[in-house]
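Tutorial handout. Part one gives the primary structure; part two gives the three-dimensional structure as C-alpha cells.
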Amino acid sequence: MIDMEDIKTMFDERTSVRRYEREPIPEGALSVIYSAILNTPTSYNGQQFSVIDVSEQTMKEKIYEIVGQKQIKTCNRFFVFCADYNKIKKLSQKKGLEMPAVEKTMDGIMVGVIDATLAMSNALIAAQSCGLGSCCIGYTRTADPQRLAELLNLPKGVFVVCGLAVGIPRESPDVKPKQPKGAVIHKDRYNEDGLTEKLEYYDNMITAYNATRSGQKTDNDWCAHILDYYKDIMGYRILEYLQQQGFDVQK
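Part two.
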C-alpha cells in the first residue's frame, strides 16, 4: 500500500529545479514518466494532446535560443506539451467522417490546454517520484511561438501549451511558500470573507522569503511582481499564433 505520508511529503517538498547533473535519466524513470503521460485523464477520453520528448542536445540548444531559459539546454530531457486536434482529424479523414470545427471554438482550445496541462502535471509528479528534478517553462508558449512551431514541425491543429525540463537535480532550492489553504480551497461556494487579509499575509510572506532564501535574493513581493508579469502578457500575440495554427476562434 502507498504510504500517504510519503505522498504528502513529496508534494510539500516539491520545488522547481533549474540546475541539473550531466548524467542521463535512467530508462526505468523515463518509462514511469511515459506511463504517467499516456494514462493522463482527458476530456471525453479524447486525448487532445501530444508530447515532444526532446533529447538531442542540438535541438535543446535551438529551443533555448528561442525561449531563453538555461535549464532547457542543461536538462537531460525537455518535454513540450501540446494541444492536438491533428491526430483525430487525420483518422476522421481516413474513415470518411466529418470533423467538426472544434478547433475554432473557445471550448476546443480550453479542452486541448487542459488535457496537455494534465499530462504535464502527471509527468512532473512521475519525475519527482523517481527522484528527478523538473521545472515548468511557460515561456515555451510565449517567447516566439511561431518560430518554435516551425522548429518542432507542428502541423495545423497543434500548438504548444507548456514545456517541462527534467533531469537529475544539481540543486535543492528552498520550498517557495504558497497561498494559505483558506485563500485557495473554498467550502461549497466561493467565499471572499477575509480573503484580502489572507492574501496580504501571503504577500508579506513572499517578501520575507525572497529576502532570505538561498541563492539570489530580491525585494519582490507577490502582488506587484505578478502584476508586472501580467503587463508582459499584454504584449503577447498568442491569438495571432493560434490563428496561424488553425485555431481561429469563432465562438
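Part three, for discussion. The beta strands are 49-54, 77-84, 133-137, 158-167. The mean pLDDT is 96.
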